[in-house]
Amino acid sequence: MKVKLQVIIIISILFLCSPSFGEESGTLNLNSSKEYVKINNPFSVKINIDNIQDVYALHIKLKFDPNYIKAKEDTIDLCDDIINKKHFIAINKIDNTTGKIELLITLLGNEASFNNSINIGIINFNTVKHGTTPINIQESNLLEKDGSYIYHNINNINMQIHERKKTSSTSSNTKLISNIIKEKENRITFEGLSLTIPKNTFLSDSTIHIKKISSDSSLSNIYDITCKNKFNKIKLSIKLKDNENIRYPCIYYYNEERKKWVYVGGKIENGYITTWVSHFTKFCVFENKYYKEYNDIANCWGKEYIQGLTMMGIINGTNQNTFKPNRYITRAEIAKIISLSLDLKEYSSNHDEFKDSKSIPSWATKYITSVVNQKLMIGYDDNTFKPNSNISRTEIAVIIDRILKNYQADNKEFLYTDDKEIPNWAKKSVYKMYDLGIFTGYDNGAFNPLAPITRVEACKVIVKLLEILKVI
């Protein structure tokens, strides 16, 4: 009777609770088994939770368009993470008529709560219509055992469904070689690509090679652009494929070192998406799954830095709608941002050496481990890491200097007005950051070395770092 009463209470809280948002946390994800799929082909969507602690009960509602896809079963196929615990399933249903999916589960009795990453379940679909169609999390409540709401981000997906193509012996790849005259403004248009090259962009006459590669997995063709000569910024425009369901298209470039597509950005202009680039490589348009519209950065001086790192998946808001740009950032949060920015490998945990290792949030474990392994962040003299403490402007300057240890600065003759307050062990790093344009101080000429760095200031520092590293 006691267990039954507990189940009823948890279910009631799930239906009635309203979230109380707090610090940046983990994510409820939808992950597709395929980047794109053809008509009348199967694919699956896994529901999982990443970097969230103390989940005792969950209530999730999803929505899909049954005109494009159909679920193969009428329930979600639950994963072992759920099945292997004592649990009660109140609701598990899929409705192919309305496109609604609902799952309501609570653990029972003294069963230990879920922590870190959880695989919840898998939904198997078949495609029925050509086009792009979203699968969205419409509502999600994650609760602790006492009924407290757990703040979390959500990641939805868009499925790109393509018609079956007739086999052909001809290649869809085409090439263009274009000669650029230095003294003139040049404009190249080719198979859905446009390059606008201002006068004197190149130091000498140059030749640009363009190769178009047809792609079913993106919102545009892929364009492989090469040129032996260096140049200043060139305006690049890519024609979007006709699709009424495109919401947040962005230009990406392929980073050969990281072996992945990296966000560039862009604005939509007359059916094209346009941005400025300072190097050539492969370019393509994809839908950005990290897009958010924060309601508290409209007048923020660092709005573009915040939006850029958000779209790259490097930083989250404090909830779905707010960023809190002037809140101080913690050492755990900066470890995550640096680890993602540098695409560091995940290592097995070895920070038990810190006396306060138990205070490291579970979502931050792998990020702190990665930056400690690379000796980018270290502990304090008392053998603590202090993950939840604010990080100072001086500490950030030293960390960035470690990342840029092989980069030389111009050694400008400059002193901050509060130079005497900058610790001797950090002065070289602080002034190197000034010379590189990463930190420029305040309007009064001060650096404020001991002041905690804010979230928006951290965004600017990381963007400047990525520019120097030529990641963006």
Automatic annotation (TrEMBL):
GO terms for molecular function: carbohydrate binding. Coiled coil: none annotated. Pfam families: SLH. Residues 1-22 form the signal peptide. Residues 289-350, 351-412, 413-472 form the SLH domain. PROSITE patterns: SLH (PS51272). Keywords: Signal. PANTHER family: OUTER MEMBRANE PROTEIN ALPHA-RELATED, S-LAYER PROTEIN _ PEPTIDOGLYCAN ENDO-BETA-N-ACETYLGLUCOSAMINIDASE. This is S-layer-like domain containing protein. It comes from Caldisalinibacter kiritimatiensis.
